[in-house]
Amino acid sequence: MIISGLAFIFVCILKETYAPALLQKKAELRRKEQDDHRYWSRYDNKVKFWPLLKVNLSRPFVMVFSEPLRSIFWDLYVAVIYGILYLCFVAYPIVFTGFRGWSAGLSGLAFTGLAVGSFLVIGTEPLLRKVINSHKKDPETGKVPPEAMVSIVCIAAVLVPVGELWFAWTCVPPVHWIWPILAGIPFGAGNTAVFIYASNYLAHSYGIYAASAMAGNSVIRSLLGGTLPLAGPAMYAKLNPHWAGSLLGLIQVAIIPIPVFFYRYGHKIRMKSTLIQSMQQDKEKLESKRRSGVRAAKLEKAEDEIVKVYSRTV
């Protein structure tokens, strides 16, 4: 409760960083200061509040159904990883409390391995960023393509089932308790990397529509994250911890080709997206207007110079 209150306070005092919102505020400020309505931003929207709210709330779901290749495979991949992670939050108490006889308080320490793995990914982010930046840059943007983010997801896609299968076959006695806890390190690292860089991939792919793409992804993964753990107790009771964990690990192995496919063919998939094509056309129009403005300014400056020279000669 305290953490939630602090988070709310920080959200309220955090400065705006979203570029479209900053440009809109800047244009509005110029209009007020100079009483000149010629100042405008490309993100200015004259649509009324309720129609605009309807568009923004429906766009994530429209994207899910209008871009089936991305939503079915990429969103499903993240959802399965997310759902199995939450299922492990059910499995850990079953294993350490039910099979090892730990108290409820002590069994919470079993998540230490997951925490260590997560912090390792966060701590090595500069190194991972070097791996991303080592990719060939896009000649149009001068930046690495969004698929560079997926390279980290491909590595994480291997770490996740390694940790899951490791945990599955070391989680119950007579194996020492340290081994299932250590299994949480690759599992936690893989999950953290998947969530961070899968989100980065969507953000870099969809630009101004990133919030809608990530909202759709969040809805799908939350459905699995909220429902899959409900099957945890029954699954571990019928299959036993070894085979229940093995089933989950093998599912994660089976979906490894998904990020590999997006790493290899993600560019072609993005180029078929109607939203991304529309976004690129808007960028090209804006760049064309900018170049026209620069040329007009140069021409005006050259004419002024000619007038000055003519005035001096006369």
Q: What average pLDDT do the residues reach?
A: 83
Please trace the helix and strand order, writing H or E for each element. HHHHHHHHHHHHH
Class from secondary-structure proportions: mainly alpha
Query: Largest sheet at a glance?
Result: none
Discrete helix count: 13
Count of distinct strands: 0
- The helix content is over 70%
Calculate the terminal CA-CA distance, rounded to whole Å.
81 Å
Q: What Rg is obtained from the alpha carbons, in whole angstroms?
A: 26 Å
Organism: Alectoria fallacina
Main location: membrane
GO molecular function: transmembrane transporter activity
Signal peptide: 1-19
Q: Could you name the key traits of this structure?
A:
314 residues; mainly alpha; elongated; transmembrane helix; MFS_trans_sf; 13 helices; transmembrane; 80% helix; signal; membrane; single chain
Description:
With 314 residues, this protein is mainly alpha-helical. It has a domain at 83-266. Helix content is 80%, strand content 0%. It has 13 helices and no strands. The chain has helices at 2-13, 19-34, 49-66, 68-99, 104-107, 112-123, 125-133, 147-168, 178-206, 210-227, 232-254, 257-271, 274-313. Helix 3 crosses helix 4 (68-99) and helix 8 crosses helix 11. The chain is elongated, with a radius of gyration of 26 Å.
Which helices and strands, and how do they pair?
Layout lengths: L1 H12 L5 H16 L14 H18 L1 H32 L4 H4 L4 H12 L1 H9 L13 H22 L9 H29 L3 H18 L4 H23 L2 H15 L2 H40 L1
Helix pairs in contact: 3-4, 3-10, 4-9, 4-10, 4-11, 4-12, 6-9, 7-8, 8-9, 8-11, 8-12, 9-10
What does this entry show, briefly?
One of its GO terms (cellular component) is plasma membrane. The chain has 314 residues and is mostly helical.
